[in-house]
Amino acid sequence: MAKNGVSTNQSDLPIPAFDPPKKQKRNKYALACSLLASMASILLGYDIGVMSGAIIYIVKDINMTDVEREVVMGIINLISLIGSTIAGRTSDWIGRRYTIIIAGSIFFVGAILMGFAANYAFLMVGRFVAGIGVGFAMMIAPVYTAEVAPSSVRGFLTSFPEVFINVGILLGYVSNVVFSKLPQNLGWRFMLGVGCIPSTFIVVGALVMPESPRWLVMQGRLGDAKKVLDRTSDSPEESYLRLYDIKEAAGIPEHCNDDVVMVPKQHHGEGVWRELLCPTPTVRHILMCAFGIHLFQQASGIDSSCSDRVIFEKAGIKSDTDKLLATISVGFTKTIFILVATFFVDKYGRRPLFLTSLGGMALSLLGLATGLPLLIVRIEKMVWALTLCIASVLCFVAFFSSGMGRLFGFLCSEIFPLKARAQGVSIGVALNRVMSGVIGITFISLYKSITIGGAFFCMEGLLL
């Protein structure tokens, strides 16, 4: 018995010794797939970042009223809701991978049109086309990532879309600084036109990605789905369990293992809107959570606080170069803290990060609402108020990135049931972009009506 016991133990020893490399190899493949898909989110980030600097030179080259400036800044968020709504059904029909290709291709055309814009109307056409591409990208990136990621690192991998949004913002800020040295009529055109470069990488990357295993099962292609699951799971056992769960959600019998099976019609995208518009109590609760997160994320004013030069102007930063450098610090802060949150989310959970984020954002908005009016009213330079304002902006984007901004994408992609996931996420993204567009279009008018301090007090009230 002792011999058998020793023999059994010795035979068991190599198993844990070889398990880590297998797990690491499979996670590397899932990591690569998630990275490629999440690159689509760069499109939104780049537009937010680059437009915040390009607008300085656009208004000097193309005469604009304050209202036209607000519209050109915020309209892409409203237009993107069209793209995100269409993308939900598109991804169910042609697949997640080809939807990513469509997103990159549309934004490529939009970037070229904006770069060659000769007047305000031409620029708005480019903004419209780019907005459609942004809507596609915002919807599909978290959905694909959530469906391809293994359960052990799903929280980590599904944070990549938000990470790439921040990377895109930082790239946009850097583009502002690099091309600001060009002549006025060329600089902003290069800033916007260079957006075709990341969209090209996205299209090329999507061509080598596998299709989402959940979409493959929904199409009845079980053999193809199993191949993808085997490569993106930590173990063969997990691959089997993931396939079982997806088949159960799709209404496919457990014993059915054919390469191609007949799938009920509604799993090709039909019938989902009825479930979302006339939801059961469970789905209604999911909709309230998902839409509430999207609504309050943008109602906090994150796009205005980190991209509008008015804040830095009111804080005493006058030169265009200094404003561009100040926004780089904002972009760098956002990127660092989104990476910090990415590594902590699976360890500490969603709720602690979310609550900490809300508290920190509220305090930061209080600092802005207090400091900015003092800088405007007082003629002499108040160093402490200037320091408070700049620190509040940096703290606001840091707390936002570590919680509220970090959670909305993957949380919404996780909580929707399989057959309603794509279109449910698309509605949430549409609401997110509507709120962002409303805040962006009305921000200048709002602070001119109730003062800059009053505007930030309103945003703080929404958080509380």
What does the model show?
Helices cover 82% and strands 0% of the residues. The protein is an all-alpha fold and 464 residues long. It has a single domain (27-463), classed as MFS general substrate transporter like domains (Growth Hormone, Chain: A, Up-down Bundle), CATH 1.20.1250.20. α3 runs antiparallel to α9 (184-193) and α19 packs antiparallel against α20 (383-402). The radius of gyration is 24 Å and the shape is globular.
Please tag this protein with its features.
464 residues, mainly alpha, Growth Hormone, Chain: A, 22 helices, 82% helix, 0% strand, globular, disordered N terminus, MFS_dom, Sugar/inositol_transpt, Major facilitator superfamily (MFS) profile domain-containing protein
Give me a quick take on this structure.
The chain has 464 residues and is mainly alpha-helical. Helices cover 82% and strands 0% of the residues.
Topology:
Blueprint: H1 2-12, H2 14-38, H3 42-61, H4 66-94, H5 96-115, H6 120-148, H7 154-157, H8 160-179, H9 184-193, H10 196-207, H11 213-218, H12 222-232, H13 236-250, H14 272-277, H15 281-299, H16 302-307, H17 309-314, H18 320-348, H19 350-377, H20 383-402, H21 404-415, H22 421-463
Helix pairs in contact: 2-6, 2-8, 3-8, 3-9, 4-5, 4-6, 4-22, 5-6, 5-9, 5-10, 6-21, 6-22, 8-9, 8-18, 12-13, 15-21, 15-22, 18-19, 18-20, 19-20, 19-22, 20-21, 21-22
